[in-house]
Amino acid sequence: MAKQGRPGARKTNKKGAVKGSGGQIRRGLKGKGPTPRAEDREYHAAHKRKKLAERRAQGRHVKEETNELVVGRNPVIECLHARVPASALFVAEGTGADDRLSEAATLAASRGIPIIEVPRFELDKMTGNGMHQGIGLQIPPYKYTDVHTLIADAAREVEPGMFVVLDNITDPRNLGAVIRSVAAFGGHGVVIPERRAAGVTAVTWRTSAGTAARLPVARETNLTRVLKQFKDNGYQVVGLDAGGDFTLDTYDGGTDPVVIVVGSEGKGISRLVRENCDVIMSIPMEGWVNSLNASVAAGVVLSEFARQRRASN
């Protein structure tokens, strides 16, 4: 027979004191599992080195190309607005949100760019310092083309081919500005040397105002060989330098396929490249001005050649 309580006593379901937290503290202290090894984290440099070693082990010659990481809230936002191709947006854990961080996240999400939260020390390692403001945009290596492809593609266009070859240009902002000018004035591409020259970086993308997404850039090891290849395909090679045989206002660049060779403001065109030019041309300007910035000089010539082409149609 069940034990009866005291007559008249109020029934209650209240239990006595329970020892412990019912496992809540134990579950709270339980970790998320072991931290993956660096080589197993796709965003880590060790992972890229591992993949590179695997490809080399298969007997494939692989040139090492690394992702670029743009850091800082304003630079990241600039890249996203310029539609610089990006593979991931990294945000350090515990980073305080503000309007710029929210804008970066919104822009990345609208373009389908993954937003990855990483420990702050990981972002420190990825950038080499702690000056990243808790945010970094990963830019994949630029996909260069080659001169053979440039020439073949231009042959299918209505207008004669027009290209710019850059020699001794080491500032990525100059490269970006040249790409923008070539695109603006109907050119078909840019050629840069593989060594001792600026490549297409995030800075180049920003300066090009997104035109680098549509204008092809070829990177070649030997510019003299490149110029010979252009000449073999019917191109006139025009080098820009002071004291040339022609000036811009006496040279007709509007009818035939043309390559414009531009050197740096300080060094100009190297000797071997100059010797492989068909014509050396200068830009008329006031005598007290010694030279023009490379991107400005390229823009002036491209604009004039584009005008001549319009006039001849």
TrEMBL record:
Organism name: Corynebacterium testudinoris
Basic residues: compositionally biased ranges: 8-17
Keyword entries, A-Z: Methyltransferase, S-adenosyl-L-methionine, Transferase
Gene3D superfamilies the UniProt entry points to: 3.30.1330.30, 3.40.1280.10
GO-annotated biological processes: methylation; RNA processing
Database matches in Pfam families: SpoU_methylase, SpoU_sub_bind
This enzyme's EC code(s): 2.1.1.185
The keyword NAD belongs to this UniProt entry's keyword annotation: no
Region (Disordered): 1-45
One GO MF term: RNA methyltransferase activity
Enzyme class: transferase
UniProt-recorded name of the protein: rRNA methylase, putative, group 3
